[in-house]
Amino acid sequence: MIDRWLQRPLAEDLCRPFVHILFGARQTGKSTLLSHLLPTPSLYYNLADPEERSRLLADPGAFRRECEALPHRTQPHVVFVDEAQAVPSVFDAVQVLYDRSRLRWKFVLCGSSARKLRQTGANLLPGRSLLHRLFPLILAERPSPTDAATPDAAATSFVLPIPATGVGSSFPAADLEERLAYGDLPGVVLLDEADRTRILSTFATVYLEEEIRREALVRDWGGFVNFLRLAARESGNVVNYANISREVGLSVATIKSHYQLLEDMFVGVHIPAYSGSARKALLSTPRFVLFDLGIRHAASGARPGVDLVRADPGRYFEQWVVLELWKRLQYLGAGRLSFYRTRGGAEIDVMVERPDGEIVPVEVKWTQRPAPGDARHVEAFVREHSAATEGFVVCRCPRPMRLTPHVTAIPWFTL
Predict the structure, then answer these.
(1) Where along the chain do its domains lie?
(2) Three-state SS for 216?
């Protein structure tokens, strides 16, 4: 078991007398983490198992009766349900049992999709549950080679510091190209490089296609596969629903529904345009980013690898920075991520609204030698907006350097 950033906060929360729901995409390590924190549950249900799933679907009352059969004791019985969204009636049964006795059972529900729950109006136990999210690895869990060489000197985090939680072990160090080529899924980064491409391709085929089809009952399967490949290729760009509709041959409404499906399955996120500016010419169409670069490559039909990254490194570097900051904000439980672009041509890659309300504009450049010109839009934004006091250019420079009065260039591993 390699420690995760969420491990300590989740362990502390699990001691509280609530129902606990952990959401996250497949292969982010949810089951592994919970199995480590809950090694001996009184009851364990794996609803990814077709036999177990069919049994509870055929007899919705079986789950409640089996929980009731557990003997009374001083400590609560842990009931762990994996892929709980597959049988939405489990949530109703949990509410009945929890309302009857908060201390007899401790329910921990794990899921990789909110689609079916939202469509069926499933009970997410408001007022009774704590919701947790697990994501692919962040820098705090997977050091850069620079950090690994100096383990006693933690790297400074300039843009969005995230509290240390006593992580005692970490995943293997990786340079930037490796991260951009294969992504940050825990199971993938532990594989030999020769196996990563095959595993990522299998994920894209088996999960992003077959699992999504089963989950959503997509009628035009060929259209959806074409949509998925195009959405992966366009990951990181502003979404043009009309163009995608014409290219795929599906209605704009269907395209929007498919994007929502990807977000419901936790494999993508919409990044809105920044709306806190006094300017009136800001674009309002969001960007959409798949949750992991390795999956993005495989789903687009490309072969994940360093050669792919070197053909267009700046594009993938920007997406990696967006995802890293987005994951940190989700763990912090506050703040917001957006992008800035005006019709007049001013553009900033990432706008970070910190939990304290401060706005931090961030430009992403592949260069190793940043220049003041790389900071011009960020500098202008800081000067024009009182909510912003500093900005950054994230790049591959070896050390931080001041570019303009309000903008500092920082190495990617100090993000």
Answers:
(1) 7-133, 145-414
(2) helix
pTM of the model: 0.92
- Taking all residues of the chain, what is their mean pLDDT, rounded to a whole number? 90
CATH node for 7-133? 3.40.50.300
Beta carbons within 10 angstroms of residue 315's beta carbon? 16
- Any long-range contacts for 37-42 (C-beta under 8 Å, 24+ apart)? 37/7, 37/10, 37/11, 38/14, 38/78, 38/80, 38/108, 40/78, 41/77, 41/78, 41/79, 41/80, 41/108, 42/70, 42/77, 42/78, 42/79
pLDDT at 213 over 80: no
Helix, strand, or coil (residue 47): coil
pLDDT single digits (tens) 113-144: 877 666 555 566 778 899 999 999 999 999 89
CA atoms within a 13 Å half-sphere pointing along the CA-CB vector of 106: 15
Residue reference for tokens 């419901």? 264
- Alpha-carbon distance of 96 to 373, in angstroms, equals 61
352 alpha carbon, distance to own chain's centre: 16
- Strand 391-395 relative to strand 407-411, pairing: parallel
